[in-house]
Amino acid sequence: MIRALHRWPGLLALALVVILALSGAALSIFPPVERLASPQTEADLSVAELAARIQAAYPGLERIRRAPSGRIMAAWLDGGGPGAAVVDPATGRRVASADPDQAQRWLTNLHRSLFLGDAGRIAAAAGAAAMLALSLSGAVLVARRSGGWRRWFARLRGPLSGRLHVEIARAAVAGLALSSATALWMTASTFDLLPDGAASPAITAVPSGKTGFPIAAIDLLRRTPVTELRELSFPYPGDVSDVFTLKTDRGAGSIDQGTGAVLGWAGLTGWERVSETISMLHTGRGAAAFGLALGLMAMGVPAMGGTGVLVWLARKRSSPRIRGNQPAGRAETILLVGSEGGSTWGFAATLHRALTEAGQTVHAAPMAAFDPDRYARARRIIILAATYGNGDAPASAKGFLDRLAQLEAVPAAPLAVIGFGDRSFPAFCAFAKAVSAAAAAKGWRELVPFDAVDRQSPQDFARWGRALGQALGIDLALAHQPIPAAFQRLTLIGRRDYGADVQAPTAILRFSLPKVSLWRRLTGKGFGRFRAGDLLGVLPDGSGLPRFYSLASGRRDGFVEIVVKKHPGGLCSGQLMALEPGDPVSAFLRRNPRFHPAPDRAPLILIGAGTGIGPLAGFVRDNARRRPIHLFFGMRHPDSDFLYGEELAGWQAEGRVAQLVTAVSRGAKPHYVQDALRSEGAQVARLIRSGARVMVCGGRDMAVGVAEALADILAPWGVSAAALKAEGRYVEDVY
Amino acid sequence: MKPVLAALALTASLALPGVATARPVTLTAALNNYGGDGAYLAIYVTDPKGAYAGTLWVSGGKSKYYRHLTDWHRATGGAPAEINGITGASVGAGRTLKITLDLADALIDAGYTLHVDAAVENMRDSPNEIAAPLTIDGAGKPVRGRRYVASLTYDM
């Protein structure tokens, strides 16, 4: 709901909002420039003294105005012709032209009415309303995404466009909300919808009928400092009934030209004050630095518009239409989908297709539409659920748990739940697990045990599919392709073999860079831009499922490098290990920004074992800035599978790696990488407490062992691994 | 109601019958290229003593800005009743305003003065932009304004 409130104003009003923001940002420059360019008044100069100075220079003086910037403009009649200029309060003489700046006038008209008069003003107000709706709904979305208002500035993960969108938003949203709300107020004021008109300075006493009282002697003007002045109008020469009219920050009044007495005074109304403050906040006139800050924030709008459209397109593309969806009342199998970004819908579509091909009638619906009364023919219910933030329901599953809790009786059809998530998050599949637990507590019969898919792994999904197929008595092969990947042919240009002596044949495989189109290079898609830690999806012959390998090189290295270990019976690793230089493979690139070293100078603690050294070696190779890297590497035997052994010696000499600690598991006394970590515990704890980041790559068992070792090392300091993970300072790439 | 005001009321509301003592007058105001937004104009008449007699036309749609038409506003308070049906859009720089109305014969060659007050956003207000006596001789002769109006002509 909130997302829809954010999406539609954003898409519909995008161009309008961008025009308003850019013109507003440009306009915000004028008040500070005007303020810097205007000669400022000495501190205790009175209006009487100022008027006398200007009148001495221009005897036909008609009016003095002071802008909030401090600029003083005078208008006079000189030998019948009117004159006007910006004057220096110190001398009362002209320093600049009083004509309005043409660029500012053009921008102002664009900004408030798109050069279309009142219709344009209404359109601009609609743009401001859209901006306000975007700001408020966006703030709620940011808070939801980062896990609460208190975690507003939490580190972000995920694709770059979405991250940029939120990064800019959380810095700028307050200013944008203020600018758009004040814009609406000002439009209402312009159309006379607010009772904020100025009270006219009522003349309560009758003018004396005399003229010629010296302006320097008028008491009210002597008591009014120039800093409070807005406008002083002079009586028309020869018109005895006319008066001096003074407007200040406090109000407006009339002064007799023959006696200098105050004839009437009207203070500012409350509404007037509010409207003036709002106008100042919006335009920056009288608050130049503040206005400039708002202008800077407005500059974020085009970028947010662009990234917002990208986010929307990605979301749209990744939520496929389900073909041949059956009505709920007729379906034997009900698929309920809890998806935030749309990728879970992709899995649901794959499952829907496979079940339909197996002859079943299948109905897919969002979990939020859960309604067991309609499932008249349902034989089984399958829930595919992602998790949002810290264990919350994803967008399409809102209210599901409440509805489940309110059910008097759970459906007779048994339930299968599969969760989708990222194992490196503390709340991995927390929502799906909560659904599964709530269903079990209600006594809902289980079709297959709860299972989870890590990072959209097609393998995980296929494994669960086999279990589901067994329970249904059908052969269910789920070949899910998350994104239609752009496969390219890579050619092997070199390989180095390790580990044959320790029954763990492993190789570092180096492929040539594939040809990349200019467009891809510009947009950084596919092989146009990649770094160590990204993933190479390799499609083995005879399978539709790609296998993913962590990259040990970046585009700047000029080659594509991975580390592969031969798994007994492994289809893909077997084919890769059999490659000879010149042989091709079919592969595509998947970005994995979560497993990139953060772009700061904090020390890195890299921990890996076996093929897990791949991306870590890539980080070291890329460490031209010589940030302190402490590498912990576990192997079987240094004579056999010391991957990157030669390079590491050189990198250490160059200072690319500050410290290398190895652990050897084959030998008299097996020593694993977590043991090495423990023996350096004091130093590791010191590094982490001083801000070091931890990156772990390797098998799941190793990762668990490392996590335990880190927990023990950090426990005395009251630092928890979960807290480090939440901060993004402890990331894992585990397989 | 004073007879003069009644006459002006006739000029203002053309639908009223009995305009036998009035004649059609065309007012043409050409504006300078003063380099600003559209001008607000108030065109009105004062009697031989200089007192406000009635309004012929107001250009500019937002009544909240009428106070910048200083003299006219002081005389009328910007009261909507004064200008009901005789307002139009503001006049852009370099553009020409042309209006035709029926003016009572009693006002012509009788010491009455035609006034124009002008105001432009962020520029100087110009009350008494033009003050021209209403005479048969003056008809068809352009009068220069002080700041925003290049020329005003009334033809009868």
Automatic annotation (TrEMBL), chain A:
EC number: 1.6.2.4
Domain of life: Bacteria
Name assigned to this protein: NADPH--hemoprotein reductase
Single Gene Ontology MF annotation: FMN binding
GO cellular component: cytosol
All residue ranges annotated as the Flavodoxin-like domain in the record: 333-469
Segments traversing the membrane: 122-143, 287-313
Organism of derivation: Hansschlegelia zhihuaiae
Domain FAD-binding FR-type: 485-598
InterPro entries assigned to the protein according to its UniProt record, in alphabetical order: FAD-bd_FR_type, Flavodoxin/NO_synth, Flavoprot_Pyr_Nucl_cyt_Rdtase, Flavoprotein-like_sf, FNR_nucleotide-bd, OxRdtase_FAD/NAD-bd, PepSY-ass_TM, Riboflavin_synthase-like_b-brl
Taxonomic lineage: Bacteria, Pseudomonadati, Pseudomonadota, Alphaproteobacteria, Hyphomicrobiales
Annotated keywords: Flavoprotein, FMN, Membrane, Transferase, Transmembrane, Transmembrane helix
From TrEMBL, chain B:
Keyword Signal: yes
UniProt keyword annotations, A-Z: Signal
Signal in keyword set: yes
Pfam families: DUF2271
Alphabetical list of InterPro entries matching this protein: DUF2271
Top-level division of the source organism's lineage: Bacteria
Signal peptide: 1-22
Entry protein name: DUF2271 domain-containing protein
